[in-house]
Automatic annotation (TrEMBL):
InterPro entries: FecR, FecR_N, Ferrdict_sens_TM. The keyword Nuclease does not apply. It comes from Luteimonas galliterrae. Coiled coil: none annotated. It comes from the Bacteria. Residues 89-102 have a biased composition (Low complexity). This is FecR domain-containing protein. Residues 141-232 form the FecR protein domain. Residues 10-50 form the FecR N-terminal domain.
Length: 353
């Protein structure tokens, strides 16, 4: 019984001859007889045929052609080993020369046959490498508490991670996907119309092609802030529910998505940018409940602000504050509001006076 290598080379020679353009009914009958002779023949032929189709005629098959040129259909000469009636093409002779440097010289006919077979086997190997290089490549990134991290991505985009955030980046030929597992990130997306940029968090996805936007994940809620371009917000539906509508978010939009739906606030780009002042080390509050302001500070600091009663929680604050300076924020509260602070090692408790 022929070895697997011999079977593979014979299958490659059949493909080379068929691709040469001079393919007769007699040739087809001989091929079918060879395929019927053994399951191994059929498996080898189908595998090589699939690889040949997927490889898009890899440049490895264009030996002897100008750089950057792929061989046109028909440039493969029919193999003399299978009864070719035409001399080998330049492409096949180049492949034969490559083969001859690795295998003992036999006859001219055998050399050309092994050249065609070796070239196609090389194509199969290259396809395996090609699939390896273009398969989904995953990389995870995270930032520590109180740390901002700028991450250049493989596609030319950039991600800025806010404090205590984590993403999983998956790059493929068809899609650029970011799984926001925790926290918040701002994305400066490189334009690539053929590969959507998808930021996923649970059942929701913020999709763009080339734009600037931030996505924040808080338990079951999601916030999307768009400062350039347009983002498409999608939501997966449960099997027993109607499809959820898609929301288009132009620049200046701030979308809050929760279990109750999606609330969109439209404004200027400058207003949207204020939601992202954390990139410069600041937090901006505008008539914000003190409980919410304290929660924002707690995202960046190990020493937490604890609200001691409902009256204190409902107080409204405004202004820009450095998120790294909790003590200054609390002292200003004590000066301007009926609030007293209890300082402890791991927290600051605020109570109404």
């Amino acid at each position: 019984m022929s070895s697997s290598r011999q079977i593979e080379r014979t299958a490659a020679a059949w493909l080379a001859q068929r691709d040469g353009g001079r393919w007769s009914e007699r040739d087809q009958a001989r091929l079918e007889a060879w395929l019927s002779a053994s399951t191994a023949h059929r498996v080898a032929f189908l595998r090589l045929e699939s690889a040949w189709q997927q490889s898009d005629r890899l440049k490895a098959l264009g030996a002897g052609l100008p750089a950057g040129t792929l061989p046109e259909r028909g440039q493969w000469a029919p193999s003399p080993f299978l009864g070719s009636r035409e001399p080998a093409s330049e492409t096949t002779r180049a492949a034969s020369a490559l083969s001859a440097s690795r295998t003992p010289r036999r006859s001219g006919r055998m050399g050309r046959y092994f050249g065609a077979a070796a070239a196609l086997v090389l194509a199969v190997s290259s396809v395996g490498l090609w699939h390896h290089l273009t398969a989904v490549e995953q990389t995870s990134y995270q930032s520590g508490l109180g740390e901002l991290r700028l991450i250049p991505l493989a596609d030319g985009s950039r991600a800025t991670l806010s404090s205590d955030s984590r993403i999983l980046v998956s790059m493929s030929r068809s899609e650029r996907r970011i799984d926001l597992q925790q926290g918040e990130a701002f994305f400066d997306v490189a334009k690539d119309p053929g590969r959507p940029f998808v930021v996923a968090a649970g059942a929701r996805r913020a999709v763009a092609v080339g734009t600037h936007y931030a996505v924040r994940r808080d338990a079951a809620n999601l916030r999307v802030v768009v400062t350039e371009g347009t983002v498409r917000l999608e939501t997966d539906s449960a099997p027993d529910q109607h499809p959820q509508p898609t929301t288009l978010l132009p620049a200046g939009s701030v979308a809050l998505a929760s279990r109750n739906g999606v609330l969109v606030r439209s404004g200027s780009v400058e207003e949207a940018e204020q939601q992202l002042n954390w990139r410069s080390g600041f937090l901006a509050f505008h008539d914000t409940p003190l409980a919410d302001a304290a929660a924002e500070f707690n995202r960046y600091n190990a020493r937490k602000i604890v609200i001691g009663d409902a009256e204190t929680a409902a107080m409204r604050v405004g202004g820009n504050f450095r998120w790294s300076n909790v003590d200054v924020f609390v002292r200003l509260l004590e000066q301007g509001f009926p609030v007293r602070a209890e300082y402890r090692d791991d927290r600051i408790v605020l109570r109404s006076q």
